[in-house]
SNG2 protein (Mesembrinibis cayennensis), 131 residues
Amino acid sequence: IFALIVFACLVGEGYTNLPSSPQLFCIFNHNEDACRYGVGIGVLAFLACIFFFMVDIYFPQISNTTDRKYLVLADLGFSGLWTFLWFIGFCFLTNQWAWTRAEDVPVGADSARAAITFSFFSIFSWVSEAV
């Protein structure tokens, strides 16, 4: 859910333009990489959650213990990796938001803060999956 919120905040109001220009820019200090990173890890985390949810549903029907072991290790490894990536994302978005000038963000400041907040919450939700 947190990944979906981060993705929605960045896609919905993460890009804006100045009244004098039709050119869109990322509200995080005009750094397109910040918005792309947040959207990218948000989408991939959501898709991975759907995949691992389906694996959890079909897990009792998997009779091969080797396959079960690899699925559990894949879930553990992915959760650990995504914990690290959400931490990087939180630090990156927070840093870029700190350098953003207030006059550059006429609309979307609340969405930017929500994306930062839920990327922080995502760290703990992925840690809980890895433990």
About this structure: Residues 1-55+63-130 form one domain. The chain has four helices and two strands. The mean pLDDT is 93. The radius of gyration is 18 Å.
